[in-house]
């Protein structure tokens, strides 16, 4: 499929991005790679139900708390 490149860039047909809410666009080895990101991607569920603890440095030292390192 060929698409026309305008001053703003190019338009990717929605049917090629079925179910995606976002897309990750990268340039790799001279090629442009578009990876659709779907709603059910588990990464979007991280942080939905945080656990409250008496720890103030869990973000910086999460390995220590998770794995005892």
Task: Give your account of this protein's structure.
With 69 residues, the protein is mainly beta. It has a domain at 12-40. Helix content is 9%, strand content 30%. The chain has one helix and four strands; from the N terminus they run E-E-E-E-H. It has a two-stranded antiparallel ribbon. Strands 3-4 form a two-stranded antiparallel sheet. The longest helix is centred in the last third of the chain and has 6 residues, at 62-67. The chain is elongated.
- Contiguous helical run count: 1
Global morphology: elongated
Give me the secondary-structure category.
Answer: mainly beta
Strands in their spatial order, largest beta sheet: 1-2
Order of helices and strands: EEEEH
- Cα(first) to Cα(last) distance is 51 Å
pLDDT < 50 stretches: none
Explain briefly what this protein structure is.
The protein is mainly beta.
Properties at a glance:
69 residues, mainly beta, 1 helix, elongated
Q: What is this structure's SSE topology?
A:
Layout: E1 5-6, E2 9-10, E3 20-28, E4 31-38, H1 62-67
Antiparallel strand pairs: 1-2, 3-4
């Amino acid at each position: 499929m060929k698409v026309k490149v305008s001053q703003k860039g190019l338009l990717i047909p929605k049917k090629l991005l079925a179910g995606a809410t976002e897309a990750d666009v990268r340039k790799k080895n001279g090629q442009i790679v578009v990876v659709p990101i779907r709603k059910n991607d588990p990464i979007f569920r991280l942080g939905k139900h945080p656990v409250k603890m008496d720890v103030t440095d869990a973000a910086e030292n999460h390995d220590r708390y998770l794995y005892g390192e």
